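Predict the 3D structure for this chain.
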Amino acid sequence: MNLELALAVARERLAACDPLVIAARARVPYDEARGTLVVDFLGMRHTVTFPAGEVSEASGVTVPLLREVLILHYLTGASGLPVQNRWIAFRELPDGAIYVGPFQARAVQPLVRYFGGAPERLIPAAEALGGTPVAMGDAGAVVPAFPLVPVAVVLWRGDEEFPAAGNILFDGSAPTHMSAEDYVVLASLVVGELKKRA
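Done. Predicted structure below.
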């Protein structure tokens, strides 16, 4: 993905939208006086200018291009459909089967490599991102990535017979908010942030 081009396209799409509609569909506040949308992403507050689409972190830290693009994709793609509290696998997303390889390589395998030997480390890391434990696998947590996009991260401890395993699941409403390609990026960023917090 050419990130510069993807960012330019995402900004064009944002500028063509009504900010009040975006705010309603993405469940984010819009400050009309300042012309900014406020997006919470993985426990970090971001401000997005409208119509320019410039993304900044509240702390002043420079936002990586990949995260900028993903935030803009969420804002322009969110359908407003609420969370269904029903989990689906990545391959159940439209076009998910096409991106299973990158999803495994960029998200699931790094998750298992880092946390597989000690799944109990997952819970405090997830809680640091605003997540909550769930009764799945040997350790499971739901991380609120975006207001309408929770992500479930699950680990199974290995033993003499089977190696450690893991999975990343999405809410049933996920296909209405972003593309499968976006969810590959999102899952990899979730795992990266979990590793930092651990």
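The radius of gyration is 17 Å.
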